[in-house]
Design brief:
The chain is α+β, with helices and mostly antiparallel strands. The chain contains 6 helices and 17 strands. A hairpin with a 2-residue loop joins strand 12 and strand 13. The chain is globular, with a radius of gyration of 18 Å. The relative contact order is 0.18.
């Protein structure tokens, strides 16, 4: 599943978020990299403990909480605090797989990284390159969305960020632990949920067939949930 989420952030939120993070002090992006990513990573990143990163993360988390498409697709139980990165002047991130588990900052439990997410914070015509390139079961796909748009994809996918040769690519990135660990089961639940929503508009919520399909959705979620 590779799922674009359009207008996750409003344009006002994008502007507020950018004004917040652009005044911050950026550091080498390898400060939080796993071993594999450290070998191929060349970018800048906001320190996780910085006030700007934490305040910006709250803006992103609030947007996720109200986005029905994200909730339906990710079925989130834990979200790693959103981080922020910047690519310019030929910087890139080579092919890698995200770590399976990440300890939460400032102690506490860990997050099993079932899904990865990138929220774009710069309009695509403002920079060249910078595509998020993901290897999927249906071939290689490149993603470069508008400011405020996001993409959700399996954390186990091989992926990279192409070199940015003009302008600056700004984004937020983080990982999600889902209630449903299995990718195929989670995709099936999303398909079923979307079908229920579509039929509800056509037939009305009280239709007997829809009641049965909704029951099927929840019984499958009960069977597959990991919490």
């Amino acid at each position: 599943m590779l799922l674009p989420l359009h207008a996750l952030l409003s344009q006002e939120e994008v502007a507020r978020l950018r004004a917040l993070i652009e005044q911050a002090d950026w550091v080498d992006g390898n400060a939080t990299s796993g071993h594999q990513a450290r070998l191929v990573k060349n970018n800048l990143q906001l320190p996780e403990e910085s006030p700007e990163a934490q305040q910006g993360g709250q803006i992103v988390l609030a947007a996720l909480a109200r986005h029905a498409g994200f909730i339906a697709a990710a079925l989130p139980v834990k979200i790693y605090p959103p981080m922020f990165n910047s690519y310019a002047g030929g910087q890139a991130l080579g092919l890698h797989v995200d770590n399976a588990v990440r300890p939460l900052p400032r102690g506490g439990t860990s997050v099993r990284c079932d899904l990865s997410m990138t929220v774009f914070l710069e309009e695509p015509d403002r920079y060249d390159g910078g595509e998020l390139t993901i290897e999927t079961a249906f071939g290689v796909q490149q993603v470069k969305l508008g400011a405020g748009d996001a993409v959700l994809y399996p954390a186990g996918s091989l992926h990279r960020v192409e070199p940015v040769t003009r302008g600056r690519r700004l984004a937020s990135f983080f990982w999600i632990q889902s209630m449903v660990r299995d990718h195929e089961a989670r995709s099936a639940l999303l398909d079923l949920d979307q079908s229920i929503q579509q039929l509800s508009g056509d037939l009305g919520e009280g239709h007997a067939g829809l009641v049965k399909l909704t029951g099927l959705y929840h019984n499958l979620l009960r069977r597959w949930t990991d919490v």
